[in-house]
Amino acid sequence: MKQLIYTFPEDASTSTGVPFWSAPKRFPHPLQFSTTDLSHLHFVMAASVLRAETFGIPVPDWIRNPKMVAEAVDKVIVPDFQPREGVKIETDEKATNLSNASVDDAAIINELIRKLELCRENLPAGFRMKPIQFEKVLFLQLSFSNIFITHFFGQPNCGIGSRLIMYTCSVIIAEDLEACI
Length: 181
Prior knowledge:
Helix content: 40-55%
Order of helices and strands: HHHHHHH
Structural class: mainly alpha
Oligomer: single chain
Distance between the termini: 22 Å
Number of strands: 0
């Protein structure tokens, strides 16, 4: 998000002179992660538990204690954001939408299968991912949507399209998983 803001500051204009951050786009406000903000900690807690359960990693009891999670997170060193020059961010929706004529479903499926097979080679013998209950995923989506709302509307729980945002979060999480393959 900080790279996007660096590339397109709040007063940026398109090649036609129209403000880049005009409807439906909203200028984002990057959050500074803070262990004193419970919504940030709840997101870390929920995502950690979901990931651990999915991969069969034992979940320590302390993960449900915000104070202990804050202490663990405070030990993590995250480097400051450094913008990169010359990053190309596609802004033409037509360029990112594939027409049906240009999509070769079989090739896409075969490429995904190939990537999955490569990933499987790095897993321990007999490894199986464990499905998680919908309610647990919903908690992560709610936690993520609060952070998302805060980025774009400046305050959590403001009630603006929360169901749409939860759906969007589901799509983002699914795309994120696909990107990891």
